[in-house]
Design a protein that fits this description.
About 20% of the residues lie in helices and about 20% in strands. It is α+β, with helices and mostly antiparallel strands and about 425 residues long. It has one domain: Alpha-Beta Plaits. The strands form 9 sheets. The protein has a 4-stranded mixed beta sheet with strand order 14-3-16-15. Strands 17-20-21 form a 3-stranded antiparallel beta sheet, with helices on one face. It has a two-stranded antiparallel ribbon with strand order 1-2. Strand 1 and strand 2 form a beta hairpin. The mean pLDDT is about 95.
């Protein structure tokens, strides 16, 4: 084990390999508040990469309903229970102001063990705690879809659950959709676990891939990835995983004329909840004009999924406004309250960046905001909110302008001559 810095945790941690960050890191931000679970992203991935024999149960992209859904079933409950270690590893965070405001500890300091550290401390013969799901747990990619949790019993007749209020900031009856792909982690557990060294992280963009020539199907990657995104294919006796549509990321698709292109699941998103691009590799020096850097590092409105695992995942989420805060803190860490406050009463810059979500298939590397007139004013949860009809402009990595969009979407009314009345 070596010591590496994990900025999600605000400290160094133990990992089998030395710290090695790419200059640019493949990443994405998902706005959970906009997702309608149409599964267009899921089918875009399925029809592109996993439609062959032996891949029937491979869903590299899936959308699951929380708190009960999961693919494989119970994946997060099981790994959290293992990490909890019967109460011996309480997974506590220290959120003192001196840590919370630091560049290297934006969410505070994580005091518990990661999946790597717990395995070492318990003397396990593996690099991280983990498990291999049973076959039955892979059967349903959208099990418990739209199943709500409640302060009262969900199924008991006369419990009054049907009459519970649904008011912000926290609904008493709630669920939300969680969009999941491989996180292309900075410290991948799959890479650390592979005895064949078949898994590697690309230096040019941080994408994590499996070398099929070296893989022998030992399934250590399946066992020790806490997110369960490497999947075993019995037909070939090898593991496979999301490849981040790397030919598109490399700019090989003619549609974008040599410029980097969003992955298939990102570009197909109907709800415009996804922004796919590259983060600056140096977390200490984020680019405030890079929309992903701005959302993750500068404004801190987008958070990692289960940062306590220790893998430093590179897919980030804007949490849902209506779910219980305690549940969200467990899932996204202690930055939830600050992120939701900012999202509930968005700044002009946040409004502009959100307008750029799914505005182009070309990856947006830089954004600008042109000021416009005020068009709306209100109060949200005691905070004044002002909306301006600014113009958000997105640029590709080569400086070319690829999108220009107003905050207020234009509307048109048909001419009265076209109106038909009966």
């Amino acid at each position: 084990m070596t010591l590496v810095h994990n900025w999600h945790l605000g400290r160094t941690m133990e990992y089998p390999y030395f710290e090695s960050r790419p200059e640019h890191q493949f990443a994405a931000v998902f706005n959970i508040n906009r997702c309608i679970a149409c599964q267009t992203c899921t089918m875009a991935h399925k029809s592109t990469w996993t439609y062959s024999k032996g891949q029937e149960y491979m869903w590299w992209n899936n959308v699951e309903t929380k708190p009960y859904g999961g693919y494989p079933q119970h994946w997060d409950q099981k790994i959290l229970q293992m990490l909890w270690d019967n109460g011996n590893n309480p997974m506590e965070w220290f959120t003192g102001a001196e840590d919370k405001n630091a560049t290297t500890a934006p969410y505070g300091l994580y005091n518990g063990d990661t999946i790597f550290e717990l395995a070492k401390n318990k003397g396990l013969n593996q690099v991280a705690v983990g498990y291999i799901p049973d076959d039955k747990e892979w059967r349903f990619p959208n099990i418990y879809e739209d199943t709500a949790a409640s302060e009262k019993t969900n199924y008991e007749m006369g419990s009054g659950a049907d009459k519970e209020s649904s008011e912000l900031p926290e609904h008493k009856r709630w669920f939300f959709y969680l969009q999941r792909v491989c996180n292309h982690c900075t410290y991948p557990a799959c890479l650390a676990a592979c005895p064949r060294k078949a898994i590697y992280k690309r230096k040019e963009d941080g994408i994590v891939l499996i070398d099929q020539k070296r893989c022998r199907g030992y399934r250590k990657c399946v066992e020790q990835c806490p997110y369960k995104k490497p999947m075993y294919r019995g037909e070939t006796r090898m593991s496979e995983k999301c490849i981040a549509c790397y030919p598109r990321v490399e700019g090989k698709d003619p549609v974008t004329k040599g410029r980097r292109m969003e992955a298939r699941c990102m570009a197909a998103c109907v709800g415009k909840i996804r922004m796919n691009g590259l983060l600056t590799g140096d977390y200490k020096k984020p680019d405030p004009k890079n929309p992903l850097d701005w959302l993750v590092h500068v404004h801190k409105v987008a958070l990692p999924l289960y940062p306590q695992f220790g893998t430093e995942p590179n897919i980030y989420y804007i949490p849902p406004r209506w779910a219980p805060r305690s549940y969200l803190r467990q899932m996204f860490g202690p930055g939830v309250d600050e992120a939701l406050d900012k999202y509930a009463a968005p700044s002009r810059t946040l409004m502009a960046v959100l307008a750029l979500f799914r505005a182009s298939q070309t990856m947006i590397s830089r954004f600008e905001v042109e000021d416009g007139p005020k068009i709306y004013e209100s109060e949200v949860m005691g905070k004044k909110v002002e909306v301006y009809n600014d113009t958000a402009i997105g640029y590709a990595a080569d400086g070319a302008e690829i999108v220009r969009i107003k905050i207020e979407e234009p509307t048109w009314e048909s001419d009265e001559k076209r109106m038909v009345t009966y």
